[in-house]
Every structure is written in structure tokens, then in C-alpha cells.
Here is the input.
Amino acid sequence: MLAAEALEKRFALHDGRIVNAMDGVGFRIEPGQLYTLLGPSGCGKTTTLRSIAGLETPDSGRIAIGDMAVFDSARRLLVPANRRKIGMVFQSYAIWPHMDVYENVAFPLRVSGERVREGDVAARVAKALATVRMEGFERRPATRLSGGQQQRLALARALVMEPRVLLLDEPLSNLDAKLRESMRLELRRIQKSLGITTVYVTHDQTEALAMSDVVAVMENGRIVQQGDPRTIYSRPATRFVAEFIGSTNFVPGRIARAGADALVEIEGGRLRCAVPAGLDTGARVLVSIRPEDIAVRAAGAAAAAGDGNRIAGRVVEQIFLGSLADHVIAAGGAEFHAWCHPAAAFSPGSEVVLEVDPARCIVLPEKT
Amino acid sequence: MGDRRGSLALAGAGASMGVAAAEPRARKHLPRGYTLPVALAILLALLTVVPVATVIVASFRPSGLPLSDGWTLAHFAKVWSSAYSYRLVWQTLVFAAGSTAFGIALAAALAWLVERTDMPGRDFFRTGILMPMATPPLLLAIGWVLLMSPAIGIVPTLLAPVFGEGVKSFSIFNLPGMIFVQGLAYVPTSFLMLAPAMRNMDPVYEEAARTSGAAFGQTLRRVSLPFLVPALLSVTTLLMIVGMLTFDVPAVIGQRGNVNVMSSEIFNLMNPANGLPAYGEIAALNSTLFVLLALGLWVYYRATQQSERFATISGKGYKATRFKLGRWRSVAAAFVTLYFLLAVVLPFLALLWTSLVPYFAGFQTKLLGELSLKAYATLLGQPRIWEGVVNSTVIAVVAALATTALALFVAWTIVRSKLRWVRVLDVMSMIPISVPFLMMGVALVFIFFGLRAVPIYGTVWIIALGHLIVFLPLAARMMQSGVLQVHRELEEAASVSGATFLQNIRRVVVPLLKPTIFALLIWLVVHSLREFSVAVMLIARQNEVLSTILFSLWDQGEPGQAAAIAVILMLVLGGLVAAFTGLTRARQEA
Here is the structure.
């Protein structure tokens, strides 16, 4: 279990402006979970991770790893990084170039307060290397490893002490696309099989969605939404989250009728949507509709079954992307992107109708 | 005390976070990371601020001693009411500026030829350029006196049969002569600072200029030169500062022609023909000089800040295009060869010749039959020499180790600490660069003559301490650039792996910095062995070092024995410099 509460950290920039790297960050991670901090650069996700590691000291707040409080500003308590018993993989991997693979992995055992016998060191290094499938590389100089091998080595080193918490700082960002995909699966496999509580920092939404038990989206030093990947994707809470994760269309409108069977008035029509609590009739809103949730049909074609929203529009442009065709469609006073199977593509100029399931129309307050 | 307050707060925190009260091995700290910076700040203040303050305070004391009573401006009044003082300042500035200009012009030409042209033998020259480090200014100056002394110098006696007796009246015991020799002595340092700037200049900027239609000369003036400005500015300031405080060349060449600069005047005042030294005037002169140098230091600091910013735009992994010299290739090679002749070969041969002849009378064929190793035998038969060898060695080893260790901790703290005020450490570690070596010697005399609790006055330890202080600025700089090259995450990885601060330093930082550390150690041993200006102020009977013995033999009219020491010293230093070159090259290739 890992818990943080009310973490604050301010930096002064050179020009005197103050930046809130963490502005009341708090979370609670259950044992064995993979918890992802997701956000653009400068959102405070790395500062948060480094605060858990003890490499950065928050101005105030509390952090506990398992049953051990490691930071508590009110009590002036600060456990240094080397006593927090964590494993961490750095963005640059931080493989020590003056040691071979074996010595890199053995390092945490050698510097640990309890004297580990050489035989135990060998056994534990072998186990860690086996976990990341690096057997047989023991005597390879660290400078002669590929990017993927360095990544595995960094992971083995982080795991060798069997830490309670594993911290991963954009571990895949230095790998090429193909390798990144396979390492993603492997990381998740290892994490699950060890059942180790993990904090994962990334700016890559695909990685976050594919790997996480819980995703926390950060913006300007705050966690703006937290939840499982499906919820985060399908029910974004703010415009920022909807925009940052995946692609989406925003349609400006005004709530015509709040409540269970809500209606949002947009230019040239009305959309049936689920309106969240706290938004009343008359409020200006944005409706977020994912491009894959839009069905494009020829004008005049029979409506699909059910009570979907229908908006008339015209295809402005069609872009072939291989696995799908992206249509830019002018409709309802906005430009929509809609993704169709390439076989069912419309050419520019076609009159079309956009069909959207009301459950897929997410109403967001205009200002958040 | 802290526990009670802690346990009260614990209840609240534990409840709200669901954290049990148990926290094995957790310690209560104030914000970490203050201990080392504070300790270093105190140490650096003792090493750099206190000596300077001592001399400044002394200049306001009637007796000229820092711990005596009363205040006065009389010393300054005396110094600055004399026209001689103004001439002294003027001559110091001419000497410093002249030798800086000559040295940099020479070094820039050499660096350009070696780094950016297809001059034949450039790799050989690049390796050899450090050899002059084995010819310290003291030996270079003595070598040139032996070569150029009117009437009895080696060159006049060689040339007189050809050009007539007139050549015998040519003298180098004047400002131009001092500037010439000091300028030669500056070349290795300036080359070391300018060559990387030329080497790292990404040719893409020059290529862009050329494809924009700029001719070679225009490219050089409008694109290449502006890139070098920061490096040039920083090396100019550094050499100006050294020129104002150096004592070797003024002692050997200037004093013979009665051309004094501030450093040699301070030396003369410290060693009066009779009576006690005029401490007050010495301190007043020193304080004045220090103000001039502090200004220089400030300029230097600004300049190096800028050069570091510039350095970041240069990357690696490209090969600079080399300028084709065409038929000027042999001229260029001849020019570089001439430099080596003037800076190393000729002075060395003059010293070697002098150490072998029975009496010094320039070059005469009749002396060829009388060459012998007698001077060496006489020299090595004296216990004084062996004491000097032991003292020099002990001082060099101790000072090199201590300076390296201190520089490592200072540099690491400056680079890694998140505290804003650690820049103070940077400034304090640079102070000695603006303190004349002689003044540092005077300050240490002032301090330890009175401080009986630390009885190091008159021992080798006071000289080792002096070396530690005067070599600290360069050592700290070298270490800083070393630490900067170590990616921060390499150390953070050690930290989260459970390594303590000292384990991190010992197992990660030191091994990664090994090449820098070795190169620095050798550089320090070389410079400690050849160092003269600090030691000359600090020697008593028991702690003479080779360079001061050499100077006193020379001063007492024993050029043969002085030259013998010089030859031995040059051979030892040459070996060390070769090792240094090998190491720095290994580091560049790594």
C-alpha cells in the first residue's frame, strides 16, 4: 500500500514566477496495483514520483509506503531515499557504465545495511536476471547492451531487493516503437506475476490505458481525474482529460433540459445526452464525442434502430490512414472527425448523417 | 524533545492516512543536505577568506601585523604618495597585458593550425603541446637568461664570431624580455583552453556561412571568431590575473635589469637588506593588488559562465572540416617547430650545457673537452638537496591528494546540491585565483607565525597548505566539469538502491570520475613540484623545497648546480606530463 496526502511543491523560476509542481496531490494505491500518473510534461507527475522515491522533498504533505511513514512535513519526518526500500527504473535507465551486468544488479545487495553473503548475492542476482530474461549476460559490460537490454537490466536491479514498491519513470520512452510495445506487455506480465505495487509515470496515453489498474491524469500539479482506464477514456471528467486521452470532438452547446432525459441544444439541432449532476438548464457546455463513436451514413439512409442522435452534415475531407478512414465533416456548427472502416469511406462533398449513441455523448462544463 | 512533538502529530497523520505508528528505522530530520555544504563553506572560508582578510586587516594596522592594536591609513598613504608605486602598477599592467597578448596570439595560432588545418604532424604536436608544462616559468626564465645574457650568454657567444661583438650588448633584462618569456610560458594553458573551443565548433555554422556566399575571411571574422569570443575572453582574464601576480619571471629576469613589478617589489620588501620587513607597506601593496585582481576575477567569472552556456550548443559526433593549407603547410610546421625550440628545446639545452661545463661562459668550443658531471656529483653529495627532494615529494603528494579530495567534494556539492547558496562555495573556491601567490605566502606567515596552537610554521605542512589553497580554483573547476558529465540519474539510482552518501561517492562517483581524478592528481603533482612563489615566502631552515634551493643556488652565483637541479626537475616533470597526456587522451577516447 502506498499513500500520499496533500503534497505541495513550488519552484521559483529564474524570472521570479512561481510554479506549482504539486498542488495538493493525494492518492492511495492498493497492494499489487499498477497505478499510472499520466499527463503532459510539466504537469508534476515526475515530481510526484521523485517525492515518493525521496529524490525530491515536497514543501508539505505526507507519504507512507506500506506501514512506514517516509515523509511528513508536520512532523519534520523525512526518510532518505536509500532507506525507503523501493525499486526504481529511471528514464535514462542509469546503468552504471563502470560495472558489468552482474555488478549492476548486485549493487543494492552490496550497499544494503545487512551483510549479504556472496553466495546469496549470486543467487538473488540470478533470480532477478531470470525474471527479466537476461540469464547469461552476467559478465557483459554494461556499455555493450542494447536499449531493450539496458531496460531489462534496470528492472532487474530495481527488483533484486524485492522492494515493496516499484517506481517507473517513463521507462519505455527511449525505446523504438516496436520494442516499446513488446516491453509494455512484458513489464505488465512481470508486475502482475510478482504482485508488486507499482507507480508508473508516462505522458503516453496508450501506455497508460494498456497497462494500468488505475490511471490518474495530472494537470498543473493536480490529479484531475482518477479511475480505471475504461472509465477515464469513456467518462472523462474535464475537457483536459477528454482532449489529452485519445482524440475527441467538442461541440459547444447549452443545456436545454437537465435531469435523466437531458437535452443539449447545439447549432442546428439538439443532442440527447447524459448530463452530470451540478449542471443546470441554461449552462454553457461542451459535448465530447469520440471519432470512433460516430457512425457516418449516407443522407436519406434509414436510421439505425433505437433513439440515437442524428446530425446532418457534409464531408469536407477524407484522409486514408490504413486501418481506418478519417472523415472531416462539417455539421452542427462544428467540424467533426469521424473514423470509419476504409471500405465504407465517403468522398468529399457527400451529404451524410452522423449517428451517435446518447450514452457516448459526454457533457462537460465549458470552463474547468 | 523532538520525539514528544513527533508522537503527538503522529496520531493525526496515522489516523488520516491509515498508517500504523510503526516505522522501523525512520529518522527525524530537518530538511537534509545542509551538513556537507555548511561544512565546506566553513572550510573554504578558513582556507580562502581568512588569509585574504588577514592581509587586508594587516594593511590597516600601524605595525603591519594583523593581530596588533590600532588602525591607520598610513601604509596606504605612504605607498600611494610615492611616484614609484604608480610606475610599479604601470609596469605590472604592461607586463601582464603584453605577455597575455603574446601568449594568446601564439596559442591561438597553434590551436588553429593543430585543430582546424591539415598541417603535417598535427597529431604529434597536439600531444607535444603539453610538454612545456614540464618547463615551469622559473626554469624557462633561467634557461633564457643563460641563452641571452649580454656578453656571456650562449646565443651572443655563438653569434659574435659571425655578426661581430655588437650582438653581445643585446639585453633581455627589460620589459620586452620578460614579456617574451612569460608569453612563452602561457602557451600550454591558453592552448588547453582554446583548442577544445576550436575543435568543438560545429562546422555546420561555417558551412552555412560559406553556402550563404561568405568568403573564407568573412566566415572567419563573422562566424568563427564570435564563437571563440567567450573562450578568448576567459583565457585573457585568467592570464592577466596570473601575469599580475606571477613572480618567477620578474624574479629571474626583471630583477637583473632592475625592472620591478608589484610581485617582485613585495618580495624585496619581505626580504630587506637589514632590519624587519615593512609589513604594513607589503600588506597595503597586496591589498591594492587584490582589489585589481578581484575585478579581474569578476570579469573572469562572468566570462566563464558565458562560455559554459556557449559550450552547450556544441555537440559531438561530427568531424570538423579542415582548412587546406596548400603550400603553406611546411611554413606552418616550421612555425610550430620554432615554438617548441623556443619554449622547450633551447632552454633545456642551455640548462643542460650549463650543468655540464666547469664554469659558465656561454658557448665556447674549448669547453667541449671539459664537460663533466661534477655539478651533479657536488649537488647530490649535499644533504640539503636530499632534504629538498623529500620535502618536495611529500608536499606534492600530500597537496595533490588533499586538493583532489577537497575539489571533489566542493565540485560535487556545487553541481548536485539543491540549495541556492551553494554558489557561494563556487565563488569562495575561486578566490585564491585573485590572490597573488606571494600574498598567500605572506598571509600564511601572518596567520601561523602568531598561531602557536597549530605549529606548522617552518614545516613542509605550511607549504602543502599553501599549495592546497592556490591550486584549489583550477582543481575545483576541473572536477566540476567532470561531475557535470555524470548523469544525475546514475547517482539517484545508487541512492534508491540503498547506497548512503559515502557509498554513492565511493562506489559510483569516484569510479566514474577516475580519469578526471588521475589527470588532476598528476597535474597537481607537476605544479606542486615546480611551484616557487608560495614556497619562497614560507621556507625556513627545515622546509626548503627543490625550487627554492634551485633559486637560492642561482641567486648565490652557482648556475652549474642550479642548472643541474633544473635538468633533473625537467626530466621528472616531463615523465609526469607524458603520463598526464596519455591519461587525458584516454579520457577523450573513452
Chain B has two domains: 39-48+373-590, 83-270+325-368. The interface with chain A takes residues 2, 5-6, 9-10, 12-14, 16-20, 22-32, 487, 489-490, 492-500, 503, 507-508, 511-512, 514 of chain B (CB under 8 Å).
